[in-house]
From TrEMBL:
<protein>
    <recommendedName>
        <fullName>Dolichyl-diphosphooligosaccharide--protein glycosyltransferase subunit 1</fullName>
    </recommendedName>
</protein>
<comment type="similarity">
    <text>Belongs to the OST1 family.</text>
</comment>
<dbReference type="GO" id="GO:0008250">
    <property type="term" value="C:oligosaccharyltransferase complex"/>
</dbReference>
<dbReference type="InterPro" id="IPR007676">
    <property type="entry name" value="Ribophorin_I"/>
</dbReference>
<keyword id="KW-0812">Transmembrane</keyword>
<keyword id="KW-1133">Transmembrane helix</keyword>
<comment type="subunit">
    <text>Component of the oligosaccharyltransferase (OST) complex.</text>
</comment>
<comment type="pathway">
    <text>Protein modification; protein glycosylation.</text>
</comment>
<comment type="function">
    <text>Subunit of the oligosaccharyl transferase (OST) complex that catalyzes the initial transfer of a defined glycan (Glc(3)Man(9)GlcNAc(2) in eukaryotes) from the lipid carrier dolichol-pyrophosphate to an asparagine residue within an Asn-X-Ser/Thr consensus motif in nascent polypeptide chains, the first step in protein N-glycosylation. N-glycosylation occurs cotranslationally and the complex associates with the Sec61 complex at the channel-forming translocon complex that mediates protein translocation across the endoplasmic reticulum (ER). All subunits are required for a maximal enzyme activity.</text>
</comment>
<dbReference type="GO" id="GO:0018279">
    <property type="term" value="P:protein N-linked glycosylation via asparagine"/>
</dbReference>
<keyword id="KW-0472">Membrane</keyword>
<keyword id="KW-0256">Endoplasmic reticulum</keyword>
<dbReference type="Pfam" id="PF04597">
    <property type="entry name" value="Ribophorin_I"/>
</dbReference>
<keyword id="KW-0732">Signal</keyword>
<feature type="transmembrane region" description="Helical">
    <location>
        <begin position="382"/>
        <end position="404"/>
    </location>
</feature>
């Protein structure tokens, strides 16, 4: 039997591809009450290699009270495939979609129960399909307690360019495996050890908020708009950000809203006043994000505009204190030629800053992925330099004050006369 959970989507597809020693009349999926209370219509198709038919689903609450059973009725088959689809309805914390920007995890699946087999199966293989761009931390609980040498947890070779299966293999007819938590983080490569009950991430992570808050400024120059048109900005950001803050630099933003889809979060900015020709619009955002230690960080620049076009587009990226940028690479090679490093002395003087300036675009949408290779410096000497400079300044000031006082009293002149002129005599 093969059992699939496709993660990263508010729509979930479960596929049970089974081969039993004896014909079975039903097949059951078990979910926690928290999960099942947010399920949309549960539809299943049964394929026995000869024909496809709609399978009826019975829903019932188990005696334990914390799980719900979805029983798929079959026609005494020992081999076939069950494909069930359902949507997640409403805001469900940690199930498939990121319900709050304050949630540091990209997404979680909690309390998904593997199917319990009432008949002896030849072999059970459970596959959780993971997005290839993510690193995953999976914690599983096996119940009842069995010999864990019979249960194998490992990643297998990718079956497609975008997905990597995580396989759970076991050989018993009464075992249920609860996937307690799946945490996915954007854009991070991962490695794994086979035959571990708990697959742990092997890269040290650091939240950039611990280093300081990153700030990104967007300057749109020579904005052209239709007559009496109020514009919309759509800024697309990765799912893994949290503690999002928006700053209206121009004072022309009326409202803003934040929402997440399966793969990105979108920040929608609606203008307060219609824009005229050659208008300039500026706004800034800051947020926290989990990044790998001493690795590569991907920053997406993705801005969609409605009813307006932009001639010049400038992005200021202010990196947190302690993050030293070593290399920059763009997915469109020639666009990376239009950036420069700056080190402002006042506002962000201890930060690495990069300015991307795109000219003569005349765009209504702009998409760009930028890779930043960086090193994290745990200690920044910038504040020590300021302190030393301040102490030296005070010392020099005191020295000159004393010198002036001595000169006013003629003591300095008498001392020079005694030491130099009298010695020559």
């Amino acid at each position: 039997m093969k059992y699939f959970i496709l993660t990263g989507q508010p729509h979930v597809e479960l596929i049970a591809d089974f081969e039993m020693k004896e014909p079975i009349s039903s097949f059951s999926f078990f979910f926690s009450n928290e999960f099942s209370s947010h399920l949309g219509p549960f539809s299943c198709i049964f394929d026995n290699d000869k024909e496809k038919s709609i399978a009826y689903v019975l829903e019932q609450l188990l005696e334990e009270g914390n799980k719900k059973e979805f029983e798929v009725l079959l026609h005494d088959s020992d081999k076939g495939k069950i494909v069930c689809n359902f949507d997640i309805v409403g805001e469900l914390h940690g199930i498939g979609v990121k319900s709050s920007i304050n949630d540091p995890d990209l997404m979680q699946f909690r309390g998904i129960i593997m199917p319990q087999l009432y008949n002896q199966a030849k072999e059970v293989n459970t596959y959780i399909y993971l997005l290839k761009r993510d690193i995953v931390d999976i914690r599983c609980v096996v119940s009842p307690k069995i010999d864990l040498t019979q249960v194998h947890f490992h990643l297998i070779s990718p079956s497609s360019k975008t997905e990597i299966p995580f396989q759970i293999q076991y050989f018993t007819n009464t075992t249920t495996i609860e996937v307690e938590q799946i945490i996915e983080h954007d854009y991070i490569k991962f490695t794994s050890n086979p035959h571990l009950v708990s697959l742990r991430k092997e890269i040290d992570f650091i939240n950039i908020s611990n280093l300081g808050t990153s700030l990104n400024e967007f300057n749109l120059n020579e904005v052209q708009a239709s007559h009496n048109t109020v514009y919309d900005f759509f800024l697309h950001l990765p799912l893994s950000i949290s503690s999002f803050h928006f700053y209206d630099s121009s004072g022309n933003i009326s409202t803003s809203s934040y929402f997440c889809s399966s793969y990105t979060c979108t920040y929608n900015l609606i203008g307060r006043y219609p824009l005229l020709g050659n208008w300039k619009e500026s706004f800034s955002i800051s947020y926290e994000q989990l990044i790998p230690f001493n690795s590569t960080f991907i920053f997406p620049i993705s801005l969609a505009l409605e009813s307006i076009s932009v001639r010049n587009y400038e992005v200021h990226i202010h990196f947190p204190n302690g993050m030293k940028i070593k290399n920059v690479k763009c997915d469109v090679y020639n666009l990376c030629d239009h950036f420069k490093f700056t080190v402002p002395f006042l506002k962000y003087w201890t930060f690495d800053n990069i300015i991307f300036h795109y000219k003569n675009l005349d765009i209504t949408s702009f998409h760009q992925m930028i890779w930043f290779e960086y090193a994290l410096i745990k200690e920044s000497h910038g504040y020590w330099i300021v302190a030393c400079f301040f102490l030296i300044s005070i010392f020099l000031l005191i020295f000159f004050i004393i010198l002036i006082k001595l000169l006013e009293r003629n003591e300095w002149r008498d001392w020079i006369y005694d030491k130099l002129i009298n010695r020559k005599k």
